[in-house]
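Problem 12. The chain below contains 474 residues. Write out its predicted structure in token notation.
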Amino acid sequence: MPSEPEQLPPPLPATFLEQLRSTLGSSDALLTHPADIWGYGYDNSRRQVPPAAVVLPSTHCEVAAIVQLCNRFSIPLTPRGRATGTPGGAVPLHHGVVLSTERMNRILKYAPKDRYLVVEPGVINATVQKHVAKEGFFWPPDPTSAAFSTIGGNLAYNSAGPRAVKYGTPRENTLGLRAVTGGGKEIRVGVRTSKGVVGYDLTRLLIGSEGTLAIITEATLRLTPLPETKRTLRIVYRDIHSAAAAVSRIMAQPVIPSTLEFIDAKAIEMIRNYSKAAIPLDAGALLMVEVDGIETAINDATALLIEAAKGTGLLTVETAHTREEIDALWAMRKALSPALRKVAPKKINEDVVVPVSRMAEFIDRLDRLGRQHQITIINFGHAGNGNIHVNLLIDPEDKAQLVRAEHCLEGLFTLVLELDGTISGEHGIGIEKTPYITKEIGSTELELMRQLKRQFDPNGILNPGKLFPGSQSG
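Solution.
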């Protein structure tokens, strides 16, 4: 959780730097001055380890040459997008070289008739959405960081967002990849068609691998037609049990919502204290629901969702039609993040997933866990697939509180697995969760993953210290 102690990186061999410089097409594509490289040593995890050098390749061929050179000199290589991830996946634990994809930001091919787009990894998610919307399409993954995060980063973590409940994650919305393995081999995986089952599915393997197997240099994204219209609902319940039961009913009927978010009672209380949002005084949980589709069917679809939402503990249902009404309903949810930043700017933010039917039990037991360790916990997230963002409000400068938070985290992950869940839904493992991965993955499965790592990255240069327990020190 705390930042790594500041360390000076060991110097890189002069011959290596000379050859590295010659592989790059631009004179300013290699950074070695401490003032230039320091900002590439951290991500959104609050950890920081300075690299010895940063490379800014512009092409697939340059990436391949860099990886091959790092292999020859046994130099650790850490891929990096815009570093919006929270588990420390972009932190260069072993110093070495950081490879930033920020200059690989071209849209290479747009094929609307075949519903795909080919992009380089440094293209921003929001740029993709704007580009394809002109022809009436969108790319479904929409993480909170979409305005800043890159496609390469979204793929590395399989980052999804609220729309995943209906449209799936990057794994379901990516047709193929071009990449360079940790061993320096150039590969193309996947297809450019809607179907294809030739060989192993290496596309889905690379997505979510956090840059430990290969560096993605091109991605073929599966596009989805934009819906004609949508409706937004804000539904308030007396308690989390009523809300969780409603989520199960909503997800069991034929109309799949395009967004199904929730916030718990403590989050509602915080919003009430830090915004002017109108919330019933006895509100114990809140759902934000969106349904999209064709204009002629949207009213019937909305009616079905409202019917499923009815039940014990329901307090209010509000429906928005216009942009102004939609913004008004979402204002309450959008007030949560600023409120959390004001109360605990250095909070711990974990993302876990439990079965929808066990959400209420999870929140109840998590509340007891917080009281046990004297840690305030605020929960919100993607209710439709049980993906809960658990926020531990702490002050990292308070050493005693930090120790209690670590014990609370241990209890959190144990609880998640007891309820048949998983310790990460979309944030990944990175550094932060490596101590806990053996709670979920058995020794046989973990060894198979290590073998895959060795096949892709035989010299272990690519993003070392990530994913595997006990690997952070070497």
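Discussion. The radius of gyration is 23 Å. Students who got a different answer should revisit the alignment rule from Section 12.3.
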